[in-house]
Amino acid sequence: MPEQTRTAAIIVNPVKVDEPALREALAAAEQRHGWGETMWIETTEDDPGAGQAREALDRGADVVIAAGGDGTVRTVAEALQGTGVPLALLPSGTGNLLARNLNLTLDDVENALDSAFGGDDRSIDVGVVELRDGDGRTRKHSYLVMAGVGIDAQMIAATDDDLKARHGWLAYVKAIGTVLRDKNELRLRYELDKKGVHSVRAHTVLIGNCGSLPANILLLPEAAVDDGEFDIVVLRPEGFIGWVQIAVKVFWENGILRRTTVGRRLMGADREVRAMNYLKGREFVMRLNRPQEVDLDGDLFGRASALRTWVDPLSLIVKVPRTS
């Protein structure tokens, strides 16, 4: 009995892609790898990918390709989580956060499609979060890279969308200046892996499944996408000196020294700075003194007064370049 032809589905944010060029590249990749015609499914303003991913699964797709920004990737991944159907990435946005953390090639459609049709499978962790509003209602979402409360989310809220479309991540520079003029202090209580409640004052809390951000920023140097744990950083600078400590830690130690053997020797023993505390665990619960903006993988998800987040280990399969 002949082997059944495999079929992919591509979920496309039509604003982010060149449709004629992508359709041509798809046809060439299908021929190279012996796959059937790919299902073409577009996102809409009302549905950024969830319904489209469910449609792809219902139609029997063997792999689902997300062609869009971080929001499209996150939404499609949430639908594929735990299904065993692989997610392939065709990076098309500003951040491309998951692709960067998996060291995938950016701006190379042919390479991305070769990975989708003929690459290896890699299982990665997914973060799941329950957000509680001030009136007690809860919302549940998944994320792949990072959840943030504080300056991180406020910076995204303050970013000019038109400026971001024209200049990419440089648009955040203006937003950072706007946000830092405010004290942005949060009072919160947190519990990590049910090991006791801690009260702190902080400016930002970031819960990471991955560690790298655009512009070569290594925020969470020990984070791994498949280790079954979160890496968490609490930023609590006190004035200008505190921000200098954070900048030195992130941009100099993490961004430059840690990346080379010589640099790691120069660093010596890893040391925390007062303004920046690292944590690691599988479940993190946080209660805030007042509702705050929350972002997941670079998109805002409204205000929450509390959140509970946990790791769903190795629950998503991602296509990566073939190694042999």
From TrEMBL:
<keyword id="KW-0067">ATP-binding</keyword>
<keyword id="KW-0444">Lipid biosynthesis</keyword>
<dbReference type="Pfam" id="PF19279">
    <property type="entry name" value="YegS_C"/>
</dbReference>
<keyword id="KW-1208">Phospholipid metabolism</keyword>
<dbReference type="GO" id="GO:0016301">
    <property type="term" value="F:kinase activity"/>
</dbReference>
<dbReference type="InterPro" id="IPR050187">
    <property type="entry name" value="Lipid_Phosphate_FormReg"/>
</dbReference>
<dbReference type="InterPro" id="IPR001206">
    <property type="entry name" value="Diacylglycerol_kinase_cat_dom"/>
</dbReference>
<feature type="domain" description="DAGKc">
    <location>
        <begin position="3"/>
        <end position="133"/>
    </location>
</feature>
<keyword id="KW-0443">Lipid metabolism</keyword>
<dbReference type="InterPro" id="IPR017438">
    <property type="entry name" value="ATP-NAD_kinase_N"/>
</dbReference>
<dbReference type="InterPro" id="IPR045540">
    <property type="entry name" value="YegS/DAGK_C"/>
</dbReference>
<keyword id="KW-0594">Phospholipid biosynthesis</keyword>
<keyword id="KW-0418">Kinase</keyword>
<dbReference type="InterPro" id="IPR016064">
    <property type="entry name" value="NAD/diacylglycerol_kinase_sf"/>
</dbReference>
<keyword id="KW-0547">Nucleotide-binding</keyword>
<dbReference type="Pfam" id="PF00781">
    <property type="entry name" value="DAGK_cat"/>
</dbReference>
<comment type="similarity">
    <text>Belongs to the diacylglycerol/lipid kinase family.</text>
</comment>
<keyword id="KW-0808">Transferase</keyword>
<protein>
    <submittedName>
        <fullName>Diacylglycerol kinase family protein</fullName>
    </submittedName>
</protein>
